[in-house]
Design brief:
With 53 residues, the chain is mainly alpha-helical. The protein contains two helices and no strands. The longest helix has 28 residues.
């Protein structure tokens, strides 16, 4: 779980960097997509762990 939180922090930092630097707009898009994908993976894994118990 800590690894996923770390990834979410990194992706959020990329989004902020992409918003601050105008030439790096693509970085904001990539960071946002990866942030959402990591969140979905975390939710799915948490649901799978709950189903086992």
């Amino acid at each position: 779980m800590g690894f996923l939180v770390g990834l979410l922090v990194v992706w959020a930092a990329l989004v902020v960097l992409g918003m601050v630097v105008k030439g790096l707009f693509w970085l904001m898009i990539v960071g946002a997509v990866l942030f959402v994908a990591t969140g979905v993976v975390g939710i799915v894994k948490r649901g799978a762990l709950s189903a086992r118990r």
